UniProtKB/TrEMBL annotation:
GO terms for biological process: response to stress. InterPro entries: HTH_MarR-typ, MarR/SlyA-like, WH-like_DNA-bd_sf, WH_DNA-bd_sf. One of its GO terms (molecular function) is DNA-binding transcription factor activity. This is HTH marR-type domain-containing protein. Pfam families: MarR_2. Residues 7-145 form the HTH marR-type domain. Gene3D superfamilies: Winged helix-like DNA-binding domain superfamily/Winged helix DNA-binding domain (1.10.10.10). It comes from Dactylosporangium siamense.
Amino acid sequence: MTDEMLEDPRITAMGLFVEAFTGVTARLNVQLAEHGLGNVDFEVLVRLSRSPGGELRMTDLAAQTGLSTSGVTRVVDRLERDGLATRRACPTDRRGSFTVVTAAGVAKMHEVLPDHLALIEEWFTGRLSPEALEALLCSLRTVRDAVRPGATSGAATTAAAA
C-alpha cells in the first residue's frame, strides 16, 4: 500500500459521504423518536405516502428500502399494529400483497414532516445553493440507480394501474 492510495480522492469522497450521512441521520433520528418513529418506520411511511394511491407491493417496498423480505414484513407488522399501515391482497396475484398507508399514517406524516423538513433544511439542503443541490440530486440518483437498480420499482407500475 502506498501513501498515494491513502490520499486517493475516492477515499475522501466516501469518507465525507459517510460522515455527512451519519451526522444528518443522527439529528433526524432524535426528532423522529420524539414522534414515536424509528428511521426505518419513517422511511416506509414516506415511500408509501409518496406512492400513487399510498400503496406499494411488499416486494417493491423491500426493493425501495433495501430491506429483506422478512425485514419489510417486521416493519409492516409494526406499522399495522400502530394503525399506520395495512395490508391489502393483490387482486392479480394471490401470492402478493400491497402495503397501504392508512389515514392515521398520513396524519402521522403531517405531524412529523414540518419539523423534519426544517431539520433537513437546517443541516442539509439549506447549506447548498440551488445549483449545488440539483447537481447533488443528479449525482445521488446516478449512484443509487447503479447500486440499487430496483429502488424505483413499483412507482411506475402503481401509477399506471391508478
